[in-house]
Amino acid sequence: MARRDLYPSRVSEKASISERKDPIIHNEEAYKQGPLSKSELDFYEENGYIMLEKFFDDTQLNMMKQELQYTMDNNRDRDSDEVIKEPSSNEIRSIFEVHKDGGFFEKLSQNERLVNICEQILGTQVYINQSRINFKPGFKGKEFYWHSDFETWHVEDGMPRMRALSCSIILTDNYEYNGPLMLVPGSHKWYVSTAGETPDENYKSSLQQQEVGVPDNQSMEWLVKQAGGRIDRATGPAGSVLLFESNTMHGSAGNISPYPRSNVFFVYNSIKNKLEQPFSGKDPRPEFVANRENVKPIEPVRNLSYSSKY
Amino acid sequence: MARRDLYPSRVSEKASISERKDPIIHNEEAYKQGPLSKSELDFYEENGYIMLEKFFDDTQLNMMKQELQYTMDNNRDRDSDEVIKEPSSNEIRSIFEVHKDGGFFEKLSQNERLVNICEQILGTQVYINQSRINFKPGFKGKEFYWHSDFETWHVEDGMPRMRALSCSIILTDNYEYNGPLMLVPGSHKWYVSTAGETPDENYKSSLQQQEVGVPDNQSMEWLVKQAGGRIDRATGPAGSVLLFESNTMHGSAGNISPYPRSNVFFVYNSIKNKLEQPFSGKDPRPEFVANRENVKPIEPVRNLSYSSKY
């Protein structure tokens, strides 16, 4: 029997918008449980994101920055799929799968304070579906156009339901003027089925610049209108953590300011929402962007400490 | 005898920064005279710009928007140097020389309230050195990299001194998230001599995307540092007027929001600062970007009214 697709996309020449079919907080008792308060959960449910200011203190922040630099330096001359470079130069923009480094970032991905929040929202134990460190240089950071992560994860990776969230640990101050992530509040409540079809091995170019799975202008206008015209920006000091729902429409403008931006990015998925065959009918994307091998719930780890490399 | 060049640029392989050699307010009695108040003049002198919120009322604003639309429609199929289109499409981005349209925008450029402010700051009668209407579409408005207008006007047009200002009449609300103009406060007090040499007919590509006359990263970092790390954005409601000094370093990120941006742009120059031969030694740029024919001081006009086309 054919599998039912709750969120079809890239199946028609015409885009369309439908209602979300999953809860946002997957746990009716979440507000009793913590660590997020009722008002924090309400904000997340309403807007599809929440910024937790100064979640990590300066000692932890410095540790993360050093480990990021170390990992960047180690990968500079590596030519590998996990290392994504700027379209027009050889500079590193992202390194994927850092949660399997057997060291600092693996431990960070298991951080108890983060994992507890994800379990609270997703209502089950969780695992890392994707991870990366991002480096957006000053002066020439490229824009990233609007997209819903879930749309890609569903179509290209076979994530069945909206039961995942992204966690961005901000390692540099995010200002209005250095290309902060922009989010359309409330957009996670709607699913934009995009026009077109997924090409083979789409991920090879889409990690640099997305061409399919991109919402049409009319849908974007509609989403911004339902938000009362608002587009929010994830500004805040280094050490803050941005959590956003898998289906929240987001993007970022370029960065011509001298200020670079870097962050650590973990996607937490419910252990009940493991990847299946891609709904596109194409081959799955590789393991480094969408984990499906040996998936096990995270055992939370309390403390952060330098990797043994130091 | 060789002419003395107070602001050499594009003459070396190495960039450098020097102090401004001209006043910012060219009139010691300016504060006694109005229309700008002492505190407004002080802000302009210190920061190199000032935003005059809701300078035009809604009736005047609607008139300007209709006239802009009319002019855009009239030029859509015109293939002319004055009509600048997006690099990657046929959409109009700017139309130059609107202050010679014999109609609405000519009268607007002579608007008494604007002209009085320019005379107050520049200390003499003024004329229009360049004008244009700009349209930056939603979703795909391109970035414009950092630059000092004066650097180009001096090198390519032969403007001898820093005694001009730009006036941008904002016809659409400018938000943090639709690619507002960004300015480095205080940058007008320093002159960045950029590296390289001016190619022949540089204006043909530089009006779409500037490649020479672009400040180096080190100079930009220095300028932002002297500003205490600040980069200001010209946000504000439609009808506001942004005035900025000829040498203020400015640029804008791209615009992926659904909100388009349009404005009317006039460059007022002191009648004592008329264009000479370009300091690059090359041919002057054409009249439509740098007026040198029949230059006369503006006779201010009191009222705004629709062009006879309506």
Automatic annotation (TrEMBL), chains A, B:
Q: Fill in the subunit field for this protein.
A: Homodimer.
Q: Which UniProt keywords apply?
A: Dioxygenase, Iron, Metal-binding, Oxidoreductase
InterPro entries with a match to the protein in the record:
EctD (IPR012774), Phytyl_CoA_dOase-like (IPR008775)
Organism listed in the record: Salipaludibacillus aurantiacus
* Name by which UniProt lists this protein: Ectoine hydroxylase
**Which family, according to the similarity comment?**
Belongs to the PhyH family. EctD subfamily.
Q: Which cofactor does it need?
A: Fe(2+)
| Catalytic reaction list | L-ectoine + 2-oxoglutarate + O2 = 5-hydroxyectoine + succinate + CO2
Q: EC annotation?
A: 1.14.11.55
Q: Where is this region: Disordered?
A: 1-21
Q: Outline what the protein does.
A: Involved in the biosynthesis of 5-hydroxyectoine, called compatible solute, which helps organisms to survive extreme osmotic stress by acting as a highly soluble organic osmolyte. Catalyzes the 2-oxoglutarate-dependent selective hydroxylation of L-ectoine to yield (4S,5S)-5-hydroxyectoine.
Query: What is the annotated signal peptide range for this record?
Result: none
Q: Which domain of life is it from?
A: Bacteria
